[in-house]
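Support case: user asked for a sample of complex input and structure output to validate their parser. Sending the pair below.
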Amino acid sequence: MRIVILGGGHTAWMAAAFLGQSLKASDGRPLAQLRVIDTPTSATPRTLSALPDLRRLHQRIGVNEAQLFTEARALPFYASLYEGFGPQPFWRGFGDYGARLNTAGFHHLLTWQALNGEAVSIDDYAPAVRMAQTGRFTPPVTAADSPLASVAHGLNLDAAAYTTLLQGAAPMVARSAGTPVALRRDDRGAVTAIQLGDGQRLEGDFFIDADGWLMTQLAVPFVAAGGLSHDRYLEVSAPHDDARAANRFRAVDGGWALRRSVVGEDRIRWVYDSHKLTPEQLRAGLGADFAAPQVLRQGRPERFWTGNVLALGDAAGLLDGVGLHELMLIRHGLTQFLTLFPDRDNAPALAQEYNRLMTQAFDRTADFARLHYPEPTQGWPDSVRQKIRYFQSRGHIYRCEEETASEADLLAVLWGRGLRPERYDRTIDALDGAVTRKRLEQMRNIINHEINRLPSFAVLRQQIEQAAIRK
Amino acid sequence: MSDYNDKKIRQVLIVGGGTAGWIAAAALAHIYNHADLNIRLVESQEIGTVGVGEATVPHIRYFNARLGLDERDFMKRTRATFKLGNEFRDWGRKGTAYAHPFGAFGESAAGVGFHHHWLRARQKGLASDIGDYSLSVQMMKKARFSLPVSDPQSVLSTFSYAYQFDAYLYAAYLRAYSEARGVVRTEGKVTGVDQHPETGYVTAIQLASGERIEADLFIDCTGFRGLLIEQTLKTGYEDWSHWLPNDRAWAVTCDIRDGHLPLTRNTARESGWQWRIPLQHRLGNGYVHASAFIGEQAALDTLMGNLEAPPLNEPKLLKFVTGKRKKQWHKNVVAIGLSSGFLEPLESTSIHLVQLSVTHLVDMFPDKDFRDEDRDEYNRIMHREYTRVRDFLILHYHATERADSDYWNYCRTMRIPDSLSYEMELFRQRAVVVNYQQRFFLEPSWLAVYFGQGIMPEACDPLTARLSDAELSALMTRTKSRIDQAVEAMPDNRAFLEAYCPGTAVAERIMS
């Protein structure tokens, strides 16, 4: 089996490293020949955010966190702050929000307190949020009974440095460079080779499009993500201005800015609606100049896997990034592809199943993004409306098949945007109210106690940055 | 908050006892505070219960544990036996048999599911029957039993179990449990149902004694007739009998001789199938059949001709239509049990579906406003559960080579739901079982039936090539011998039962 990966950025090399490490026999013998066609990529800086579960991909390809810090300019974050997305700023942290006292989800206890007229802060029960707020960090906690056991961190990465690191993790992958100019197909329509500008012809049995060129050649229709209006983005660098392991989103009318830290600097990404904001307004807002904004087309191809071509990364759809999902979707696509890995016969049911799963995963991810915004005049899809309606009505977190957001993610955003359930789970009425209050207080105190013992993130960041400079 | 308290439902009335009614009563009484939520149950001894679901699936253990039931006490009082799975005879082809165990087939190796390795090994002549690689199947074959362990390193963690019991006794057991927790039982026949003149909501029921019982929420456990959900609210029924044409069952019990096997046996017959369920003190038997293909008398003759021992009671005929209520929760009535729908007991799901209904009702428990969203979400979830069990049942009938009767010709050639053909095609092409995040029967169950009924995929996962032939052969040998050793060390099922619940299997028989 010869697999050709088209694309020169992080997506292509994530695929190369992941498949290179996965398509091996137990004695190390390769089960497929892999080749990357390195296509030219934009030189402008780009920052990526990895959710905690990208750790599994890094383990698979043999990349450890220290390498990510020193070579991919990675810095960790425990939570993201969203300002201007709801009546009050809110946090979305990685890990648990409180602990259940009976069968009812934890947040019903908060609703119960709120409906009793008591002041409630959801952040007090989310250790990851408390870590971000107070500027702490923790090495991974292994004791299952620790209140910090569920705490995880994401990573902000520099795309170019990350790509170089991934290249080093894919030594078994052959590499060509060039610009694709033509496609060869056999009489059944399967792609057999890509012709490059310099005349090279690269043959394969299966092709992964991490560039977008193949999807254009195959004329796969595009499905726009309804109601998501941001259509431009740009990114600039700035010095660090905060020493906490936190990403910060700030919404303005017509868009938002995300400020996140990588080794040595912060990156500010503006994502906006060109009908509402002009580059001049942005320049004034930033107090700095920037290269031309890039066009963002939110939506996905109608099919991700067509014949013997699989689209991945930007070629497999784009969203505005408010949910920090982009690397998650790449990892998810790679994992599903491996589960449904084809042989040369390429049974058609595999592409069908992959497309069914990834269409749902993409659409649910788009729904999660939609939850951050007010409903547009044309209305949200039913899947979003239900999420809002059920939460508002009774704190029920409505989950569809192939939901990509966790229950905690959905809770953080729904609660954060100011939705307060009108009812709580009635099983709480069977608990002793005074005891319940006491246990909630204990939960808060234990988390605070643990957090206060932790070292400051500023110290860790300094160590990481010094180590990165020495490299 | 006072608004909240005003709107709280204070009165729940369960109409109909039986297994469903008392499961609902026990679960609600356990979860809610009696002072806060008054639960009543009305039943009539004149109306017999169907007593379905003598065989169960492992989830009942978690349900019982939540209620805090002691397993030995529960088993003793319901004359329960252990069940490791279902055995199917004559399904894919006459003369064949396979087991659908509550357990795994092997363990994944080199990141690839065991069944893919098995398919490759089979092609190379390195593997025997798939059941040889399942601990529970071997326990079933050799009639051994011991309790599973939770240590994932141990082969004893690769199986689960359920029970076979007397559903009447289970209902009686839960009745005692419920009454001890404040559930008030009223004996009486319902003679009338009062509805709100505008909304049509049920407001009260009238009893033959003249008593009128009001409630906020009604749980209809009146069985097939659906006194509230159908006879009163005319909710409508989604008929699935074109896919599952069985509509009758003859049921009879007989003495149990030497058949203390930890399994339920379902034998396909000319126009249906026959169950064999061993309890501590007797065997439950029944012939589920389709009246379009066989007459009542012929069906009865088939059942009686296939009994292992003389019958202990008069055979009873049950009539049903496979399908489900269009809305299992309509207005202020939630149908639970046979009133909500019927799926034949081929995979012993009846009691499970009752317990699932109660669990989801608790999740979506309404207040006096009876908001649409509570009902809609409940109905959405239950519809999904029912259709997914339905598809799994249809597979048993459709995946067959049998051509020895009109019945089997119909089942083999019928048009099946798109959702099922999609799954079967994916399995045929590449041995993939669709991995829905929410469904009851998971991959091992589908594998058991696919392989057991002769659906062999054209290809397996090409990543099985991660193992060399020598490694593959070693994997097969090692898996099998690990299982064989574990089974050899286990006691006989009957001996285990006798030790676990003394005075059951043997003593009760002598007494009766």
